[in-house]
Amino acid sequence: MAKYFDVHPESPQPRTISTVADNVRSGALIAYPTDSCFALGCRLDNHEGLERIRSIRRLGERHHFTLMCEDFAQLGQFVQLDNYVFRAVKAATPGSYTFILPATKEVPRRLLHPKKKTVGVRIPDHAVTRALLAELGEPLVSSTLILPGEDEPMTQGWEIKERLDHVLDAVVDSGECGTEPTTVIDFSGGEAEIVRRGAGDPARFE
Length: 206
Fold this sequence. Notes:
Elements: E1 3-6, H1 14-25, E2 30-32, E3 39-42, H2 47-57, E4 66-68, H3 72-75, H4 83-91, E5 97-102, E6 118-122, H5 127-136, E7 140-144, H6 157-164, E8 170-173, E9 183-186, E10 193-196
Parallel strand pairs: 1-8, 2-8, 4-6, 5-9
Antiparallel strand pairs: 2-3, 3-7, 4-7, 5-6, 9-10
Helix pairs in contact: 1-5
C-alpha cells in the first residue's frame, strides 16, 4: 500500500519532503509531480525500482530513462557536454525539456540505451520536485507516468494512489499536473534533433 504525501505546490513542507527523501533512500518507488506531468522515480542504484518502472509502463530495453537533476552542476556529472551543447542546454533549463546525451561513467549501464550509450537528463521547473532533489542530493531515475494503452499521463495524485496502490511505495501530490510530457531533444549526434514536441517550446532548437 502506497503512502500518500500532500505537499504545498509552491512552499513544500520541509518535514514532508525530508520524509519522502528518506523513503526514496530506503528503496521506495514513488510517483511525483513535475513541471510537465507526473513521473515515476527511484534512486540511481535502485535496480528493483527500475525494473518496477519497466513493469508498470511495459517498457523495452531501448527506452530512455531520465535522470531528474536538481541543477546544472549535478546534470554535468552524468552526461558529456561540449561547449555548443552546454550553452544550448543551460539556456533552456530549468524547464520542460529532456535532453538525450552521451552518458559518463557515473551512470549505471542498465540505464543506458544499449547501442548509443546515452541517457536522458533534465532540470525541472517545479518547486516540489526541486525541493525533493535538493533534499535527496542525487538525481531521481524517472519516467513519465503514462500507463500502457493510454494516450495521456495521469494528472491526479488521488487517482494514482487509487489505481497504483499495489505497485507504488509512495505518491507525492501537490495538485493537478499537466498532461503534456517534456519536449525531447537528442544531442547525441552533436546537433539538436527534436525527438518529441511537448511542453517545452521546441522553437529554440529548430
